[in-house]
């Protein structure tokens, strides 16, 4: 049967194993990404007294606690800049990542009523969670600028590279988010593992301490954590501390890409089971 | 000759029941299985673990056709719609779809209680596949259809359930896909809402779109569709013009004779303050039977329990012919005095009995349906075909000629003959 010119034909049949990513569908549904991100943001802040300021409070208060315990009491070095700003610059991309992890990993299960009733590329759900985090990031970034004025630090000439490091953070968040959200549908104990994983990951990343504290011979291994590249990159671009992007950053970026691509394939492979298992 | 819209070829969907792949597991269990080599693979599954929700379904729908899909609960109708909507994947077979599919498997998918009506229109519309531009264009139409103009900027958690449903349906009703797939959305909401739904669906059908409609409401199926598929235990057992298919279904598929009892373990929503217990046919000496004589009165008794006081509750009984046409509808508070007396029903066990006079129904097979609702507020319970019963017309006036009389009623009518 020949299809008419304007009407497209779709064949639905069982798939098995690895399947093509079908990014075209994702593009067709791009407006839905916008709407779901908008929904997540609106709902998050409706009816909360602090509202949008919560996006700023989280990294800010963490910075205060770190400054007292790590900066003052434990006297952790901070690469020549005041400890508060040293940790805050790292905390905002970190908050983006950890919040995205939290929300993305639950996104499929939380939206089960949609998954079992309507078709849309399921990748949109964890994607929207990450993008909502980017908006929060922007808010926290404004506070950062305020802090830089306060500490009289001028951004370095390399600040233009900041969006690249932000992109690296986003890619990492999406990659890990895809893995976790798919795994969470199949194995609900991911939910319980996540807080521990996030905590552990935070200490593996040079947020409270500088990467320069890590012995030379461990540095490349250490850079397998893509957030290391992000955090050190943020500091270098804004404050001029640490090393310029080199091997460590390259390793981080590579790992992030691998996480993203494998995440997408794994997600697509598991996607056919979501509606039946969520 | 019209083009094909849907062509299904030996479609099948299986589920593995029990603690197999389809129930979520913990990592610990999976790792444990791997280490002890006891992981069950699909080929080693026992047959009893596998449930074929659909098997060997093949059919073709041409563009512009309106097709009904009927069958008992659990027959596989919703699974078929889910497959066509790409919500879930088939286990075998394939289906070719020509055109965009809009599915209404549930109203209000994606609605969020914290968002306003207007925000939810956009969100729901986007989820159903409409573009932002499309939604903006139809926005006013949608609001008018839903009759919620005043409340469009209030969060939907403040809406009454009626308003919520009307809004949700209004968005879905303005989808304009080439193929529309609808699942039982008429089962929710009050009579007003259902009428509106039917009206809109009828409009959609007239516009020349292809529609696949699943329902238990035989009247709606008869009204909207030309041809109907009958599904039983996952198989397509009949495809025929609607009247024939409905007849087949009602006379062969329904086997509950004379009574319908709801068991403890049936999936009745425990949050529902109305809990049906039984619906039975009783003869003139109050014995449960499955056949009555047309010359004798009989009773239909509904037993139910209320866990909370309900205002304005009415229990309705429908009698339908085996061709799906309504004979009559009657509610236990139709009488004005009874209506006032029972304006509020306190929690407890109840029996509502209606006495059908002798010489009303004609010989044949009839279906009884039941409904519990409060007018324009909420439908607590609804079952379109609860049980079937037979009416034996022997001994009725006119049976000296052994010919069947047409029509669902056979009143005893007084004639006078005069030579003038």
Pick out the low-confidence regions of chain B: 38-45
Q: Report the CATH architecture of the largest domain in chain B.
A: 3-Layer(aba) Sandwich
Order of helices and strands of chain A: EHHHHHHHHHHH
Question: Care to count the β-strands of chain B?
Answer: 20
The counted number of beta strands of chain A is: 1
Q: What is the residue-averaged pLDDT of chain B? A: 84
Strand order of the largest sheet of chain B: 5-6-7-3-8-9
Largest sheet of chain A: none
SSE diagram, text form:
The complex is a heterodimer of chains A (278) and B (420).
Chain A: E1 9-12, H1 23-28, H2 30-45, H3 54-73, H4 83-110, H5 112-115, H6 124-150, H7 162-186, H8 190-204, H9 219-222, H10 226-239, H11 247-277
Chain B: E1 4-16, H1 27-36, E2 50-62, E3 66-71, H2 77-84, E4 92-98, E5 101-104, H3 117-128, H4 132-146, H5 161-173, E6 179-183, H6 191-206, E7 210-214, H7 218-224, E8 227-232, E9 235-241, H8 242-253, E10 259-261, E11 274-282, E12 291-293, E13 298-306, E14 310-311, E15 313-321, E16 326-331, H9 336-341, E17 344-345, E18 348-356, E19 364-374, E20 378-392
Parallel strand pairs in B: 3-7, 3-8, 5-6, 6-7, 12-20
Antiparallel strand pairs in B: 1-2, 1-4, 8-9, 10-11, 11-13, 13-18, 14-17, 15-16, 15-19, 19-20
Helix pairs in contact in B: 3-4, 3-5, 4-5, 5-6
Description of the molecule:
The complex is a heterodimer of chains A (278) and B (420). Chain A is an all-alpha fold and 278 residues long. Chain A has one domain. Chain A is built from eleven helices and one strand. The longest helix of chain A is centred in the C-terminal third of the chain and has 31 residues. Chain A starts with 8 loop residues before the first strand and ends with a helix. Chain B is built from nine helices and 20 strands. In chain B, helix 3 packs across helix 5 and helix 5 packs parallel to helix 6. Chain B has two domains: 250 residues, P-loop containing nucleotide triphosphate hydrolases (Rossmann fold), CATH 3.40.50; 134 residues, Distorted Sandwich (Coagulation Factor XIII, Chain A, domain 1), CATH 2.70.50. Chain B is globular, with a radius of gyration of 25 Å. The N and C termini of chain B lie far apart (62 Å). In chain B, strands 5-6-7-3-8-9 form a six-stranded mixed beta sheet, sandwiched between helices. The longest helix of chain B has 16 residues. The interface between A and B is large, with 40 and 52 residues.
